[in-house]
Amino acid sequence: MKNFWQKIEKPMVTTTPMAGITDSAWRQICKMWGADVVHTEFVSADALYHASKKTLKMIQYDPMEQPVVVQLFGKRPEMYSRAAKIVEATGVTGIDINFGCPAKKVAGHGGGICILRDMDTVKKIIEEVTNAVKIPVSVKTRIGLNKIQGQPQAGQINVFDFIEAIKDYNISALIVHGRTYEIPFTGPVDLEALKQTGEKFKKYFPQGVYLINGSFQSVESVVADIKYAQADGVALSRSLYGQPWLFKQIKDYIKTGKYDEVSWDIIKDTAIKHAHLLWVTKGSKGFKEMRKHLLFYVKGRPDAAKLRQMLVAVDKPKDVEKIFKKI
Ligand SMILES: Cc1cc2nc3c(=O)[nH]c(=O)nc-3n(C[C@H](O)[C@H](O)[C@H](O)COP(=O)(O)O)c2cc1C
């Protein structure tokens, strides 16, 4: 039987998990603009194992967001089975496992991308999760660590080793961020490595969905990159900041060869909707997080500097409406 990944029309356009960004309000906004799949922020398998209230709150979602994939991180395989079952019981559509995080507080303790230094642990984690749940399991990683950008075969550990290690497990999708651990977030992605990764993944997982990720700047470049890498689609991250309509634009461009720019009225409407959704889901305390999004929504406007001064002080959706109604 086909799983949900296989039922989505290709090329697909999804989010990636992003800590501090892909909360329920943002996922709903992405969904409204046509995201095929949305991801939660990464959540700790250890915290879920211990039924942390804060972590359980992070995986709450609205049914309109589906398909929702919850991403787990953690380096201790024994935490994953219970954590995965808790995730499955919420009714989400999939589970992703983080094998790519370079952040000090995760990779510095041997988690995230650094788990790849010990492929036995990679295997154990995947085994725990795939044995525990019936929903599809996906994985996200980078093109490698201790390797040289632009030379996919060089270096100590790379995504090809990772694919070899996971080849016997029931993996439904793979997202690869085309940068290394050593150059975590800047510069272009290694498209050649992404292409070769897709070929290797499809060899072992002909039904698996392969998504490329990283540094995608324009609608045209995203579509060219998907084609070049022969991927099943793209997973978007920072490029979505302040422009969640990218989902629709990319899909329109794939289907028709053109796409519409968004008007300021649409930008305002999206930002105000986003503000209301954040208020409903996180209340007055969480609403401060809206400020960073608002700065992105007005980026590039000639009056952005003046607007920024007002937007960094908003406390409630009405404040956002008031500022935006004046312009
Ligand atoms: C603020 C921030 C938070 C992130 N959180 C996660 C996360 O929780 N899980 C994950 O797999 N990747 C995370 N990432 C990595 C992104 O998903 C993505 O792989 C990376 O930003 C590269 O894509 P981009 O160049 O299009 O932004 C995060 C990145 C940023 C900038």
Summarize model confidence as the mean pLDDT.
95
Helicity, as a percent range? 40-55%
For CATH, the homologous superfamily of the largest domain is named as Aldolase class I
- Would you count the extended β strands for me? 9
CATH topology of the largest domain: TIM Barrel
Structural class designation: alpha/beta
CATH class (first level) name of the largest domain? Alpha Beta
Count of the separate structural domains: 2
Radius of gyration computed on alpha carbons:
20 Å
The CATH architecture term of the largest domain is Alpha-Beta Barrel
Q: Which distinct ligands sit in these coordinates?
A: flavin mononucleotide
Q: Which outline best applies?
A: globular
Treating each run of at least 4 consecutive H or I residues as one helix, how many helices? 15
**Poorly predicted runs:** none
Estimate the strand proportion.
15-25%
N→C terminal distance: 52 Å
User: What does the largest sheet look like?
Assistant: 9 strands, mixed
Q: Give the ordered list of helices and strands.
A: HEHEHHEHEHHEEHEHEHEHHHHH
